Amino acid sequence: LEEITPKPVQDTGNILKQGYLEKRSREHSFFGSEWQKRWCVLNRKTFYYYANEKSKQPKGNFSIEDYSARLAFHLRKDSRKRCCFELTCPGKRTYEFTAPSPAEAEDWVDQIQFLLKDMSSLTIPCDEEDEEELYNDVDSSDSVNASSHNTTLNQDEPNIEMEEDDIYEVLPGKQPNKQ
Predict the structure, then answer these.
(1) Does this model's pTM top 0.70?
(2) What is the DSSP string of 71-140?
(3) Which are the contacts of 49, defined by CB distance < 8 A and separation ≥ 6?
(4) Which CATH entry fits the domain spanning 15-121: 3.30.930.30, 2.30.29.30, 1.25.40.10, 2.60.120.560?
């Protein structure tokens, strides 16, 4: 398994999806094909593409943050048009792919959309704010409990201090002396 999994990706985190896709080349020559078969790997933040599944170095990669994924039947006119999807981001390069089947194309799009939703809903608000809230909750709950406890004792029953002293004498360790 270690030989099949590209090493740079192993170092960057969990692989969420991988497999062969055809990637439309940005500049295809007269001799080269417009669509090139690539081993594609998606982890939590980055989309990598390799010459094949045994390649150690990616042919390219990009952060999927701010990208959106959608099925794109307009990319091809042949029988594989329902297998196409694209990754787009305003101001950045659009990546176009053809999956082995329409179901695979949908799965890639679903995985990427899920990841993007996860990134936008969890990483930005939770990392910083949750830590602050935890500290604030601890501080505020202690001070609120202590101050409300003191005010209840002192304001509602001013003579409670004398009774409190009596109560403290009847602690389990000192009960035998009272009897």
Answers:
(1) no
(2) E-GGG-SSTTGGGEEEEE-TTS--EEEE-SSHHHHHHHHHHHHHHHHHIIIIIHHHHHHHHHHHHHHHHH
(3) 21, 23, 38, 39, 40, 41, 58, 59, 60, 61
(4) 2.30.29.30
Question: Taking phi first (over 0 means left), then psi (-120 to 50 degrees means alpha), and beta for anything else, what does residue 37 get?
Answer: beta
Reading the block at residue 166, the tokens are: 């009596």
Six-digit token string for 87 = 């990754």
* Regions in the chain scoring below 50 on pLDDT: 1-7, 9-10, 12, 123-161, 163-165, 177-178
pLDDT tens across 50-78, in order? 999 999 999 999 999 999 999 999 999 99
